[in-house]
Amino acid sequence: MLVNRILSTGVAGLVAVVIGFASSVALIYQTVINLGGDANLASSWILTLGLAMGITSIALSLYFKVPILIAWSTPGAALLIANAQSFSLNEAIAGFLFSAFLIFLCGITGWFEKLISKLPFQLASAMLAGILVNFGIDVFNQMNEEPLLVITMFLTYLIVKQLAPKFTILFVLVISILLAWQLNLITLSEFSWQLSEFRYISPEFNLGAIFGIGIPLFIVTMAAQNLPGIAVLKAHNYNPPVSSILSVTGLVNMLAAPFGGYAINLAAITAAICMAESVDKDPKQRYWAAVSGGVFYILMAIFAGYLMTIFSSLPTALIYSLAGFALFATITNSIKQSLSENTMSEASIITFLVTASSLNLWGINSVLWGLIAGSLTLLAQNSFKKVTAS
């Protein structure tokens, strides 16, 4: 019985970490490259994120006896790729710190529920869809560059999505790497075995970094990551103290930010793997799956240097396409949620279009302008309704 429990929880933790890593590591790597970094800096970020996620997953799960799996923010990484190119690396770190501070503040004050209630989830979903839509489009743009590779990835995605949806991105990753190898698109001439090292980056605070990175990253992390993470826990009849969890993740995030820990949060999809009945028939024992997930996070962090060296050798078309495939489901769900209520549809569409645009006025990027435009649309609609009603 004990052996079976150890195996089942261990496998669940491993699967959750592998799927989470395969689904979004390409985004983090591309974020670092866009900010002027290289594979070594990317490995430092993965080292920091892996240790932060691993330690918090283990500590929170053991303390609360609940399967609390912490993950990096996939939509957050997508946001940074789309909107952080006009900022320096130091400014980006300042944005990470400010976002983490806001999350910590939500935790210690209990403001989270109040903040979320003030922002219609349809607008938050539309904003997220606007951030991510270009990643989905770019999958098909990459077919111009490497048609055989990307078309094969697309067909793999379609087939595996029907047969084994939880492992879709993992299969796409493996097949794409094998094919890229056969097509001589991978070069490992500079491959060297080295452990990851921490690289400290001093933050450079200014209003542009706060409004362009900090606030949008905070909104995306809370609305698109922490909120679904809480919903998954409650759906499995777990009721952990949300504010305490946010306080811990926010504090750890602040400590990790100068080393590339851009955002950590409650996992949702991968966390559900640790809560399934197949893990353990006793729900009170399933937290061991999240603990084992934390251990695998730490192992992933230690070997991040090797992993990023491999990623740096992959063709650009593969990395961009993999990121797009990983976000297909999130884009679909975000669009559905943004249009879930007729009275909100026009404001949601405007939020979506402005966010997806390249608008950048007065140092404020399109993400924040999208929310402003959607909110103004709602304000105008409600104001004129009151006037006509009276």
Automatic annotation (TrEMBL):
Transmembrane segments: 6-29, 41-60, 66-85, 92-113, 119-140, 170-193, 205-225, 245-275, 287-311, 317-335, 347-372
One Pfam assignment: BenE
GO cellular component annotations of the record: plasma membrane
Annotated InterPro entries: Benzoate_Transporter
One GO MF term attached to the UniProt entry: benzoate transmembrane transporter activity
UniProt KW keywords: Membrane, Transmembrane, Transmembrane helix
PANTHER family for the chain: INNER MEMBRANE PROTEIN YDCO, MFS FAMILY TRANSPORTER, PREDICTED SUBSTRATE BENZOATE
Name of the protein described by the UniProt record: Benzoate transporter
Species for this entry: Colwellia psychrerythraea
Lineage, opening ranks: Bacteria, Pseudomonadati, Pseudomonadota, Gammaproteobacteria, Alteromonadales
